[in-house]
Amino acid sequence: GSAESWRSFSMANTPNESGRVELVVKLIPGGAFSNYLKNTAEVGDDIEVRGPYGQFQLSETSADIVMVAGGSGMAPIMAMLSQLVAEKSSRNIRFFYGARACKDLYFLDEIQALGSQLNSFEFIPALSALDDEDDWHGETGFVTEVLEKHCTSLRGAEGYLCGPPPMIDAAVGVLKGKGMFNARIKFDKFIQNT
Ligand SMILES: Cc1cc2nc3c(=O)[nH]c(=O)nc-3n(C[C@H](O)[C@H](O)[C@H](O)COP(=O)(O)OP(=O)(O)OC[C@H]3O[C@@H](n4cnc5c(N)ncnc54)[C@H](O)[C@@H]3O)c2cc1C
């Protein structure tokens, strides 16, 4: 319904599923597209889609993988995990996910189901602003602080990052500080539409 502007979303399903595009869309207060989806869209409506664009895809190597996501940045990470499962990958994978409170965590069952099919997978959620009622025994603080704490040398490893620009910038700094090569860091940065 908004012919003059486009919105960017990262695909959450694997590339081999033709004819279907899965998205994880955050409801933005006052957001034109996300509120259209919630309030107006109906099954059977036509939506114009273009893409895919970008280079945010898994490299065909056996290098260790560090994934970092925040908010709806979970979307392409789920696609990558599904792909790694489909490939029966034996790569070492760590997935750091940043959110504010317990209510902001989602896809936990899906992540566990994918992780259980992988040879070496660790999911490390980090919460930065717990609610009073949260009964949380996991990591606290910004996901980038938790990343810093958990990782030793990342020389030779690959980084896949998705989420808001400040998180990506901070995470890239941490990964490089641990020895990860710039060329091995890929990200989908959720810059806002102007
Ligand atoms: C490469 C790329 C991939 C992306 N992938 C995803 C994805 O998978 N899922 C997803 O939910 N989003 C994703 N985004 C972000 C998404 O494109 C924007 O949030 C988009 O503006 C939402 O559209 P909207 O019409 O609902 O809100 P808009 O009408 O565009 O925005 C309304 C108001 O909210 C502000 N705003 C927009 N986005 C945010 C935000 N994230 N947080 C706080 N304020 C905001 C705007 O500046 C504006 O003032 C991606 C962005 C990029 C560039």
Task: Give the key terms.
globular; 26% helix; 194 residues; alpha/beta; 5 helices; binds flavin-adenine dinucleotide; Rossmann fold
Which parts are unreliable, with pLDDT below 50 for 5 consecutive residues or more? none
- Average pLDDT, to the nearest integer? 93
Please give the share of residues in helix. 25-40%
Q: Globular, elongated, flat, extended or rod-shaped: what is the shape?
A: globular
CATH third-level topology of the domain at 65-189: Rossmann fold
Spell the H/E element sequence.
HEHEHEEHEHE
The Rg value, from CA coordinates, equals: 17 Å
CATH architecture of the domain at 65-189: 3-Layer(aba) Sandwich
Oligomer: single chain
Strand content: 15-25%
Number of helices: 5
Could you describe the 3D structure shown?
With 194 residues, this protein is α/β, with parallel strands linked by helices. It has a domain at 65-189: Rossmann fold, CATH 3.40.50. The protein is built from five helices and six strands. It has a six-stranded parallel sheet with strand order 4-3-2-1-5-6, sandwiched between helices. α4 (143-150) runs parallel beside α5. The radius of gyration is 17 Å and the shape is globular. The mean pLDDT is 93. The protein binds flavin-adenine dinucleotide (FAD).
